[in-house]
Design goal:
The chain is an alpha+beta fold. The protein has four helices and six strands; from the N terminus they run αββββαββαα. The chain is elongated and about 70 Å long.
Length: 184
C-alpha cells in the first residue's frame, strides 16, 4: 500500500510542477525570463534554448535584455523570438536584444485570468485521474486478497486525503497567478 501512496504522490507532484511551468510561461505584464523557455533558436542546425546561448537579464520591471555570448547569433535569436508565440517584438541594437513588455489592458487581463483558471482546473482533473488509478490499484490488491476490506477502506480514505491536499495546492498556485495578473 505504501508503494501506491508513494507513486500517487510522485505523480501528483508532477501535475503541480507542470502547472507551475505552464504558469511561468504566461506573460503577466512583468518581464520574466521564463517566457523565453520555449523559444528555440536554430544554432548550427540544432534547436537550442535562448538561455543556453545568451545572458538574459531584467534591468527594469517591463524590460528583458538578451545578450548573446556569440554576437553572430543575434539575428537568429531575434528571428526565433519573432516566430514564437510570446507576442513581443524584439529590438536589436547590434549588441543586445531588448524585449519591452507592454502594460496589459483590462480585457487582456481578464482573458489571461480565464486561461489561468482553465489550466488550474485541468491540473485538478489530472490529479483526480491519478487518484482514480491509485484507487484501481488498491481494488486490485483487495481482489488478489493481498489486503483486507478494512485496509482497502483505510487506503481509499488516505488516498482521498492526499488528493485533497494536492487539489488545495493546485488551487493556491492558481489563485496566486490570478492575483499576480490582476494586480499589475
Amino acid at each position: 500500500m505504501e508503494t501506491v501512496y508513494a507513486k500517487t504522490k510522485e505523480k501528483m507532484e508532477k501535475c503541480l510542477n507542470s502547472l507551475e511551468r505552464d504558469f511561468s510561461s504566461i506573460r503577466a505584464g512583468r518581464a520574466n525570463p521564463s517566457v523565453l523557455d520555449r523559444v528555440m533558436v536554430d544554432y548550427y542546425g540544432v534547436p537550442t534554448p535562448v538561455n543556453q546561448m545568451a545572458a538574459v537579464s531584467v534591468p527594469e520591471a517591463r524590460l528583458l535584455v538578451i545578450q548573446p555570448w556569440d554576437t553572430s547569433t543575434l539575428k537568429d535569436i531575434e528571428k526565433a523570438i519573432n516566430v514564437s508565440d510570446i507576442g513581443i517584438n524584439p529590438q536589436n541594437d547590434g549588441k543586445v536584444i531588448r524585449l519591452s513588455f507592454p502594460q496589459l489592458t483590462e480585457e487582456h487581463r481578464k482573458n489571461l485570468q480565464k486561461d489561468v483558471s482553465k489550466r488550474g482546473e485541468e491540473a485538478k482533473v489530472a490529479i483526480r485521474n491519478v487518484r482514480r488509478d491509485a484507487m484501481d490499484d488498491i481494488k486490485k490488491l483487495k481482489k488478489n486478497n493481498e489486503i483486507t476490506e478494512d485496509d482497502q477502506k483505510d487506503g481509499e480514505k488516505k488516498l482521498q486525503d492526499i488528493t485533497d491536499d494536492y487539489i488545495r495546492q493546485a488551487e493556491a498556485i492558481t489563485k496566486k497567478k490570478e492575483e499576480e495578473i490582476l494586480s499589475l
